[in-house]
Design brief:
This protein has 277 residues and is of the alpha/beta class. The protein has helices spanning 58-64, 88-94, 110-120, 127-137, 142-145, 155-168, 185-201, 216-222, 240-245, 250-258, 263-267; strands at 20-29, 32-42, 47-51, 73-78, 81-82, 95-98, 173-177, 208-212, 225-230, 233-238. The chain is globular and about 50 Å long. The structure holds adenosine-5'-triphosphate (ATP) and magnesium ion (MG). Adenosine-5'-triphosphate (ATP) binds at residues 29, 32, 34, 52, 54-60, 100. The site of magnesium ion has 4 residues, from helix 1.
Amino acid sequence: MEKQAQRSGAVSQSLPVPALSATGVVKRFDSTVALDGVSVDVLEGECVALVGESGSGKTTLLRCFNALVQPDAGRVLVDGMDVSTADVIELRRHVGYVPQDGGLLPHWRVGRNVELVLRLQRANGDLATRRDDALTIVGLDPGTFRDRWPRELSGGQRQRVAIARALAAHPRLVLLDEPFGALDAISRADLQESFAALRTARAAGRMTCVLVTHDLHEAFLLADRVAVLRRGRLEQVDTPAILLTRPATSYVNELLARARVSAADLDRRLVRHGAAT
Ligand SMILES: Nc1ncnc2c1ncn2[C@@H]1O[C@H](COP(=O)(O)OP(=O)(O)OP(=O)(O)O)[C@@H](O)[C@H]1O
Ligand SMILES: [Mg+2]
């Protein structure tokens, strides 16, 4: 998507437009306040991890960025454009999305599922190559898997196909909702490494990502900054190093302690030249 709208005002003209931006976002579901005034910017090329307990609003916030959730108040911008007035189909074609449940279409074979966004974008000639490349990146042999039905896959394999589908069209912006949750430790580590390498490998520049995860170690491994959500509010958004050394609230401090996150996690990071590190 082209950057069309720029924020007005002499001061803001010199500032970069964040790739993704939420300001004062509120979302209620009946009596549940899922998001309670959340503001966060994701810079071009940055990976921000959303962490927090179950029900803290991670998925709801993520889905605001591709208009699957419409906020009751606040503003959500993608490349400076207001999501509430954007062409939703166009938006979703350009923002890769890995839903929490994988979201594969059960009546389509694996290959067709992976081709979905490519077909929507009318990608020509190299459709099969890009599909097979995407499957290979997530560790699935195209010859073995592309003609299978989603029901013939394990949970972890389905998750890989969902990641392949989101990445096949080489999106500049990607939203990932616990993409590695169903994988065993070894597959998970492999895929985390492939993902980190992929973010930096694209000629068009680094992929901008929002990564939802329950796992603080994963957040530290992959993200430039980590956003801690609690009951629909952001407690802190900072680099892993700052979270560790200067937790903003006792909740953040406790969360890190319970997860046994430590300075050793900073040494294991797969992001070394992030926008915010
Ligand atoms: N469509 C919906 N209708 C009603 N309530 C909803 C809906 N979607 C989310 N909620 C509620 O909003 C709150 C935030 O949900 P959300 O899915 O964003 O949490 P989450 O942080 O992603 O949790 P998890 O880690 O379990 O995936 C929860 O209390 C949830 O029950
Ligand atoms: Mg969720």
